[in-house]
Amino acid sequence: MTALPPFLVRDAEPIEADLAFIVSTYDSALPFLDSIGNPDQWGSIPFSQRGDFANETLSELHHSEDYRLTGTSNDNGLRIFIVEREYHDEPLNTELSSHLRVAADSRRFLPVGFAQTRENWVPTYVKSQPHLQIPDTERDDFIYLEVIVTDSRVGGLRRGAGAALITGIRDYGRSRQKKAFWVD
User: Fold this and answer.
1) How far apart are CA 145 and CA 116, in angstroms?
2) CATH number at residue 55
3) For a designed S-S bond to 180, which of 52, 113, 137, 142 qualifies (C-beta 3.0 to 4.6 A apart)?
């Protein structure tokens, strides 16, 4: 059995390729959620068909990029990360091949998941739950993992992608001197 190449966690960018990957990965999660008996988590309407979802996601990509470049944020330290796997195998189907990224050294990378984080922020539904409160000692120094999704269309190529994203986000938090890492 040939070992799969390692993952690369990178910053998502406000470009069409990253936007298309994120929206289509959300879409790909819906049949999976239905198959495990959880169709109500995100509903049945594809995200790509939900009004301004793509525009809102592009706006979030811009906020993430602005924060990465300037260190200032109007969106609670929003960062979006994409996990990729170097791809050497046979050609992919047309839908997935459109997501391949070719690096400057000609290596090809297939995005297999993404995550969205914020700094020192928790969603309202968590704040409203007394048993889920962030301890005072960690209230100003934490990363909150808001969303993590892997692309079910890539099959086994995504195996380990969640762990790679969590490791990358943990390392990012350490680089920002954060004391805690909270997961939704």
Assistant:
1) 6
2) 3.40.630.30
3) 142
